Amino acid sequence: MQQNIRRSLSRRSILATGVGFAGLGALPRKVAAQPAKAATAAPASVVSNPPRDWTPGHPSIYPDPDVIVVDPSFNLVRRAIAPIQRVWTGALWAEGPAWSSQGQYLVFSDVSGNTQYRYIWDDGRVTPFRKPSYNTNGNSFDYQGRQLSCEDFFRRVVRWEHDGTLTVIADNYQGKPLNSPNDLVPHPDGSIWFTDPPYGDSIPEGHPDEAGGPANPQGLLNPRIGAENAGAIGGRKRELPTNVYRWDPSGRLEVAIGEEQLPDPNGICFSPDHRTLYVISTGKGPGDSGAGGNRVIFAFDMQGTRPVNRRLFTDMMVDGVKCGPDGMRADVAGNLWCSSNAPLGYAGVLVFNPAGKLIGRIRLPEVCANLAFGGPKRDRLFMTASQSLYVLETQTQGAAPG
Q1: Percent helix, strand and coil across the chain, each rounded to 5?
Q2: CA–CA separation, 349 vs 184, rounded Å?
Q3: What is the CATH code of the structural domain delimited by 67-393?
Q4: Mean pLDDT computed over 252-257
Q5: Please, which of 138, 217, 239, 322 could form a disulfide with 150 given CB 3.0 to 4.6 Å?
Q6: Is 156 helix (H, G, I), strand (E, B) or coil?
Q7: Among 367, 377, 368, CA closest to 398
Q8: HSE-CB for 375 with a 13 A CA cutoff
Q9: pLDDT category, 308, cuts 50, 70, 90?
Q10: Could you state, in order of their start, the residue ranges of all structural domains in the chain?
Q11: Which residues, at least 6 apart from 180, have a Cβ–Cβ distance to it below 8 Å?
Q12: pLDDT digits (tens, 9 = 90+) for 326-381
């Protein structure tokens, strides 16, 4: 009996090491008695030398070395066996991703390239969707599935109806033309909230002011060269401060947050319960007379239709590095996923919990302008980063349409 027990224990111990009896017979006695330690190496990443190869056919080991867990709570929304994938490249400045649940595609902008693209879910093709796009920047879809877009060139917000017609949501405030609407978000009450910084008052992203305007004070630039429609629709020169607006379904447009509270507003989104509004304040833009924003994110409590109690949500500092924000989206748990314009190693996406604590990072080889959740289950994070479109599978879902 004891002899049988010893034999059983010996066999169980050997199997626990992962080496069977057949393997023992094939190994030299010294190796079997004392297995050599396996050699390990750090996986390629955006900061390795040589750096990670993002072309198809060069997969990364799991977990992806460029998806960084800063706080254990990030593991609840991170999928460990999912890679960051670059699915397309070729833009000049990729922006404004938005997911169409009905059409099963992602629309995004190449602002400088004056083209709207569409990533088709079924086969992964990226094709021009609207060209010219009139330097479309931010995009979204409302709660009825209609596409909303900010057109930098015409300095307006538009909505594409289901029958293919276009509705102008806003192109002026109290008779003065808008600057260049940048990003927008729908609300379940039918309203549309958008930011109006001046970044489209430039040659690459729209057209500069006419001579004497704040973005072209000396008249050195000719806004009509190569852009014969400059000023035909929308503003010819900047006349308004940089505000956040609320458009009501009745057609009324009102200032929700003034420049004195938040200069150069950019990305905008609501928390899942719509009780908190987040707005990014970015840097000084064309024609700014003030200092511009500090590249931070502010949070506001919603009191009816009014944002109140402004507070700093995050200063976007990581390891002493300023990670300038641009666009953002919230997931169903209330985490805020924010784009990061920063040096290599910090460019990509930062993820904050509802309290403003950094819980995760996604490193990309290009600075990230904006992002959106999409895919049939709305669990894919699409990231528009400089010239490319990236996607990452997650364990959460986007909180809002588009």
Answers
A1: 10, 35, 55
A2: 19
A3: 2.120.10.30
A4: 98
A5: 138
A6: strand
A7: 377
A8: 18
A9: very high
A10: 2-33, 67-393
A11: 137, 150, 152, 155, 196, 197, 198, 199, 200, 201, 205, 206
A12: 999 999 999 999 999 999 999 999 999 999 999 999 999 999 999 999 999 999 99
Alpha-carbon gap, residue 372 to 140, rounded angstroms: 9
Q: Above 60 in pLDDT, residue 182?
A: yes
* Burial call 225-254: b when 16+ CB within 10 Å, e when fewer: eebeebbeebbbbbbbbbbbbbbeeeeebe
**Length of the chain in terms of residues written:** 402
Average per-residue pLDDT for the chain:
92
How far, in Å, CA of 207 to CA of 239, rounded?
Answer: 15
pLDDT band for position 37 (50/70/90)?
Answer: low
* Per-residue pLDDT at 275 exceeds 50: yes
Q: How far is CA 367 from the centre of its chain?
A: 10
pLDDT of residue 402: 79
pLDDT at 19: 38
Rounded CA-CA distance 385/396 in Å is: 21
